Amino acid sequence: MSSVKPDKQQQHDVFQAIADPTRRSLLQLLVDRELPVTTLTGHFPMSRTAVSKHLRILSEAGLVTERKVGRERRYRLEPEPLLELKRWLAFYDRYWDNKLDALKRLVESDES
């Protein structure tokens, strides 16, 4: 019998996590620095409990990590899961590039 536990499966995926504007704002605040939940709460018109719930969803998606420093919890952005979003959006970049190239060819052929 193996004593190895299966990896904890993410409870929220990246797409679910960033769907909420508050969570996107939290990620922006954490881009360059680690911040305590009390500082993050000061940026939003909601309770510390509500901000903590948003941070928990981001954490479950792997987008933030937390560490305890004294009596406070500090949060830091983990950008690697955003690569999944980047790859997904890259397909649509190619789609729009192709559409714009086709439009350019059409316009240029009409000018002749």
UniProtKB/TrEMBL annotation:
The keyword Lipoprotein does not apply. The keyword Transcription applies. One of its GO terms (molecular function) is DNA-binding transcription factor activity. SUPFAM superfamilies: Winged helix' DNA-binding domain (SSF46785). Keywords: DNA-binding, Transcription, Transcription regulation. InterPro entries: ArsR-like_HTH, HTH_ArsR_DNA-bd_dom, HTH_MetalResp_TranReg, WH-like_DNA-bd_sf, WH_DNA-bd_sf. It comes from the Bacteria. It holds the Pfam family HTH_20. Residues 3-97 form the HTH arsR-type domain. This is DNA-binding transcriptional ArsR family regulator.
